[in-house]
Structures are given as C-alpha cells and as structure tokens.
Amino acid sequence: MTISQQDALKGSGLYDTMRRDIVFGRLPAGGKLLLNDLRNRYGVSISTIRECLSRLVAEGFVKSEGHRGFHVSPVTPEGLQDVAELRILLEGHALKRSLEAGDTQWEARIVAAHHKLHRMEQKMAAGDYAVRETWKQGDWEFHQSLISACGSSELMFLHGTVFDKYLRYQMRVLTFRGETAAAEHRQLLKAALERDADTAERILRRHIEGGVNHALENWQD
Q: Where are the alpha helices (DSSP H) in 24-131?
C-alpha cells in the first residue's frame, strides 16, 4: 500500500470519527478546533485534518473563520427548528417512496431495526443512560431502514446528514421522551408494514415535532 493510499484510509477514518465526536458532543458545540490539538488527539497529519475539516465545513458541522481557523458549529433553538423542518420534508418524502416500493426484505430490515431500538428504549426508560449512544444509533438505524427502499442514494445521504445534525441537538440536552417516543416508533412500524403512507407521515411529523418541543423545554445555555 502506498503512502497516499494510507493517508486516504486515515482520512476516511478520521472524518467518520470527527463527525461522530461532533454529533455526540465530545467536540463541543462552538468549540475552537486547533490543528495541533487535533493532530495530537487523532494521531494524523495536519494535511489530513485540513481535508476532513473541509468536508465537515461543507456539510455544516464545522465553521471556517478564514485566517482565524475553525470551530464546531454552534447549536441554537432556532437551528434546531430549522433542522427539524428539513428532516420532516426529506424523511417524509423518502418514507412515502419506501412504502410504495418496499419488498419483504425491506420489511425484515425495519422489523429488525425496531427490535434493536426497542431494547435500547427499555434500558433508557430504566435509567441506564450509559447506553445513550447505542440508543441513538438504534434510532438512526430504524429511521434509515424506514426510508431504505426509497430508491435514491442521494436522498439517503442527505437524510443521514440532516439526521446527524438533528441528533446533535438531542445529545445537547439528552432528550428522551420515554414511552411517548417508543409508542410513536411502534406506530410508525405498524403504518409502514400496512403501507399506510398518510398515517406514517402524520406520525413522523408528530414524532419529530414532539422531540423538538421536548428539547426546547429542557434547553440550557
């Protein structure tokens, strides 16, 4: 393997790690991103870090301040509402397409993803917040599985980016709505399996808006 190939592999891994660290708050919102600190933290070259930061800037997870460097994009109540509305539009459209085109393999995926999510919801409800990242990973996987039959890789990619931005806000205040959210997930699963697009879209909007309201009620500066 050439040095350039090794750098490419490191860059890909670094991008995934930095994005996850931003989403889950290990790189805090609004925090300064110093290149030397990042090099020491992740053990890669400055050039590789710059490439990853450029990708994260393009997706809105990082802000560039020109000669002043980079910082993690801030989170605000207004930003949460904007991201939530975009998620409703993208996910609602992709969900409708999936319900029209999904086959039995798609049904198996959403049932399996819901089972995993439900187990994590039970642990969160019991106060086991140590599983919060696994819980949110399960949440992501369930919603991605719901739209996985939409037939558009670009739509899936855009949804994944918007979902991660929405997730940043959830992790900001650790919003867990307990049985209310769990019930909405069960209702989404049922509507999807029954190919009831109108009901599924209505539940999805209520689910996302409920998450926004819960986060705003628990917002702390």
A: 35-42, 46-59, 77-101, 104-125
- pLDDT, one tens digit per residue, over 3-46 is 344 444 455 689 999 999 999 889 999 999 999 999 999 999 99
The strand pairing partners of 63, in sequence order, are 71
70-72 and 32-33 as β-strands: parallel, antiparallel, unpaired?
A: antiparallel
**SS3 category, 202:** helix
Residues 6+ apart with CB under 8 A from 201: 92, 95, 96
Token pair 């990082």: residue = 62
pLDDT at 205 over 50: yes
Beta bridge partners of residue 72, listed in sequence order: 62
Per DSSP, the three-state class of 161 is helix
| Structural domains of the chain ordered from first start | 3-72 (1.10.10.10), 77-217 (1.20.120.530)
Beta strands 32-33 and 62-64, pairing class:
unpaired
Spatial CB neighbours of 15, under 8 Å, sequence gap ≥ 6: 52, 55, 56
**What is the DSSP track for 102-135?**
--HHHHHHHHHHHHHHHHHHHHHHTT-GGGHHHH
Integer Cα distance of 81 and 76 in angstroms:
9
Measured between its terminal Cα atoms, the distance across the chain in Å is: 48
Instruction: Give the whole-angstrom CA distance, residue 142 versus residue 140.
Output: 6
Classify 34 as helix, strand or coil. coil
Provide the CA 216 distance to its chain's centre, in angstroms: 18
